[in-house]
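== Polypeptide entry ==
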Amino acid sequence: MSDWPLAIGVLGTLTMLFFCCAGDRLIGRAGGRTPWGILGFVVSQLVQKGIWLFPGSTPAWYGPSTYVSAMVAGFAGLARHQLTGAEQRANPDNNPLAANEHAAAGEDQLRSYAVSDDLAVLDSAVDDFRTAARQSVGHANHLVHVTGRIRAARMRYERLGRLRDLDEAIEAGERASRARGAGQARGRLLCQLSTALRLRYDHLGAADDLARAVTTGREAVRLVPSRSPHFPGTCGQFGAALHSEFLRTDDMDVLEQAVAQVSAAVDWSDGRGYRRAADRATLCYLLVQRGKRTGSLVDIDRAVRTGREALETIAPGEALYGTCLSNLGLALRTRHGLRAGAEREPATDDLDEAVSLSERALSTAPTDAPERAVYQVVAALALRDRGQYETARAPGGAAGRTGPTASGGTGSTTGDDRTGRLELALDAARAAATHPRADVPTRMRAGLLWSDIAASGARYRDAVTAFETVIDLLPRLAGRELRRADQEDRLGRYSGIAADAAACALFEGAPERAVAMLELGRGVLLSRELDLRSDIGELRAREPSLAREFEELRASLMEGRARRPSGDAADSRSRRRAEGERWDELLREIRALDGLADFAGPPSPQRLLAGAAEGAVVYLNVSRFRSDAVIIAPDGIRSVPLRVTPDEAEHRQRALDTALAAGDGGEAERAAAVYEVLGWLWDALAEPVLNALKDLHAAHRGPGLPRVWWVPTGSLALLPVHAAGHRGGTRSLLDRVISSYTPTMRSLATARTARTAGAVPGRRPVPLAVTMSSTPGAGPLTGAEAEARMVRGLFPGTVRLTDADTTRERVLSALPHHPWAHFACHTATDPDVPSRSGLLLHDHQRRLLSVEDVSRLELGSPELAYLSSCDTARTAPRHADEAIHLASAFQLAGYRQVIATLWRVEDEVSSVFAENVYAELAQAVRTGAPVDAAAAVRRATLAVRELCPNLPQVWASYLHVGC
C-alpha cells in the first residue's frame, strides 16, 4: 500500500474519534456531534474498504486499529450521549425544537423593540429567551439561548433600571458558563456576561464584578475568532470593561488597552466594507477620556471625526442614535475647552454644535429612560460652558458684546441670553440628579454639576438643595450589599462634598443647615454603624411591632455584615440589598412618629446646644467657596470666617508629612518644619476661634481650663490642631484650652450617653494591658514592657497579655471584661482600604486586629482605650471625612475616651508620655474625681514639651477623642 492511502486511513480514524468524542464541545453549535460523527463513520468505512482495495499491501496493524478506533469512538459517543441525555431527561421542560422557536421569536421582538421602545415587546422577548434557555438544557444550542436571555434581561435593565433584571442576567450567564461547550458560542455568552457584570460594577461598585467582567471579556475575545461577525462587538464590550477598570485604577496603560480593543473592532469592520455605529461611538468616548487626561488635541480631533462617522452610519430612530449624538457633543465640548486653554478667543462653533447635538439626543430618549440622565449631564455641561464663556468675554462680566452666534456669524450676545443658557443648564442638571431611574453615580455627577452651576452664579439656595440631593445619595452609593473595601472606595471618590455644602449654607445665612450638612455628608459608614446600635426603649414602648421588626432586621444586617461569602453569591447580594432597602424604609416609618424624628440620626439643634454646655464644638470647614469655623456654643450656632483654602491646607499637610518622613537632615530641620505648621494652625484657625469664644471662656467657672471639641474637615483632619501655637509664650492652644476631637457630633453625643450609662461610682478600673515588645516581622519595642509594668503598678490587678500570649482571639475575648485597655504595639496602615489597618499582635501575619474588627465590637460602656502606637488617629486624605482609623473604631466599639496619635512616635517618648497620663488618671481614681483623659493628655503633652521644647515632633502627635 502506498503512503497516501495509509495516511487517509489514519486521518479517517482520527476524524471519527475526534468528532464522535468531542464534536459538540469543540464546534459549539447546533448539531455539533451528529453530522461530524456521521462524517467520521463514513470515513472509517472508506478506510475499511481500503483494506480490500489494497489486499496484501496494508500493514498488519492497519485493520485491527481501524476496528479498535471504531469501538472506542462508539463507546465514547455513547457515554457522551448518556451524559447529555441524562441532563435532558432531568429537565421536565426539555424541548429543543420549541426552544429554537422561542429564541427566534425573542430575536424578532428585540429588533421590534429597538425601533418601537414598546416595553411589552421587550417583556415578551425576555420571557421567550428565558423559556428557550430552560427548554434547551443539555442541547448544543443552550449557550446560544442563554446568551440571548442575558442580552434581553440586560436591555430591560438599561431601560427600566431594575436591578433584579441585571442580577438575573448575571446569574444565568455564570451558571451557563460552567456548562460544557467551547468555541464561538461560549465566547459570545462570555461577552454578554462581561457586559452585564461591567454594568453592575459601574452602577453599584463591587470590585469583584469588575474583575470578573475583565476576565470574562478577555476570554471572550480569545474564543471568538477574528473571522466571526461577532468579533468587533466582543472587542468593543471588552474595551468598555477595560475603561471601567481605568476609572477605578487610574492606570493609563489600561485606558490604552481599551482604546486598542475598540480600535481593533473599528478596523475589522472597515476592512470588510461596513461600519458599526456602536464601535465608533465607544471609541469616540474613549478618545475623549484619553484626550482630557493627556491634554491632546490630536485625540480629541480624532474623537470628533469618529463621532461624526458614527452618526453617518446610524439612522435616526435606531437604538444608539442618541448615544452617538451625545458622545459627539461631549467630544466637541471637550475640544472647545482645550482650545480655550490654548487660544485667547476660540470660536464657539464647537460649543454651539455641542449644545445642539445634546438637545437632539434628549429628544430621542423617553422621559423615563435612564440614559436620558446621561444626555442631560452632557447638555448641562455644554450649556454651562457656553454661558460662562460669554460671561467671561463680556465687559465687566455682565454686559453684552459682539461675538459669534450659533450660526457662525456675528451678533449681539445679551446678558439675558447668557442667563437663559445657565438656567437651561441648571434645569438639565437638576432633572438628571432627580431622575428616578438613573443609576446613583450618574445622579451624583449630575447633582454636583447642579451645585457647581448654582454656586458659580451665587444661587446658594439652589446649590444647597443640590448638595442635599447628593448627600441623600451617599448611603446608596456605598450600598450595604458591597464589601467594606468597596464602600470605602466609593465614598473616597466623593470626599469634600459636605464642606462645600456647608459653605453654601453659610452663604445663605443658615449655620444650622450647615451643621446638618456636615453631619450627614461625613462619617457615612460611622453613622450606619451607629444606626444599628440605636436605643429602642421608647420605640418598644410605643410601637412594639416596629421595634420587633427593627431588632430582627438589625440582627440580620449585622450577621450579613460579619459574614461575607468568598464568592458573594447572587442570592446573598440580593438579600443584603433588599434588607438595606427595607431598613431605610423602616427608619422613615419610625421617624414619622411623633417625637421620634431624630431616631437613629444626628442630634437635633436643641440637643446640639444642650451638649455645648460642657464646651464649644468647633467645625473647621475648608471649602473652595469659603472657609469657616462653625461654632456650637450654649448661646447658639455661629460661624467665624477663616482665611484658609483647601489647597493651602493640603500644602501644609504635605509639608508636615514630608518633614516627619524625612530620612535625611537632623531633628532641628524637622522641628522647624513642624513648628511652621503649628504656627500656621494658630494664625489661620485657632486664634480666630479663640477670639470668637473670648466671652464664653471668660465666663468659664469650672475646674481647669475651658473645653473645646474640634471637628476638622478635609486635610485639616490630618493636622495637629490641638497643638497649634508658636514657640514660646502663651500663643498656643495647649496653654489656653483642653482640646478633644470628635468625628461627628453624633458620635460625641453617643459617647456622652455611654458615659451616663456606664457610670459606676467608686468602681476602680481593672485595665487590660496588651504589649508587644517583640513582634514577628517587626522591630522591637523596648518600652512596651515598661508601660505594662507602669500601668500594673498604678492599677493593681491589671491583666497583661504580652508577646506570644497576645493573639487576636485572646485580645478580642478579653476586651469585654475591662473598662480600660492599653495597647503598646506596632500598627499597619492601608491607605487604600483604611478599615484593613490595624494592630500588629503576635499572630498578625495570619490576621491582624483590624479597624473593621474593632468597629464591629459592642462592648457596652467601657471608659478608656489608650493606643500607645503610631498613626492610630490617621487615615488617607481621601478618607479623612469618613474618619476610618483605630481611634474612631475603638470609640465606635463603646470606649467613650480614646488616646491616640497622628504620626509615628518614638518608643522612649511613648513610655514617658504614658507614665504622665496614667499618673493623672490614677490621681483622679484615688480622689474619686471624674476620669478626664483629655486633661491628662494635655498635661502630659506640656510635660514632654518642657523636656523637649525644641522638638514638637515628639509631643504634638498625641490627642484625645471623645468625652
Observations:
- The chain is about 60% helix and 5% strand.
- The two ends are 100 Å apart (CA to CA).
- The longest helix spans residues 62-90.
- Confidence is low (pLDDT under 50) at residues 23-33, 398-412.
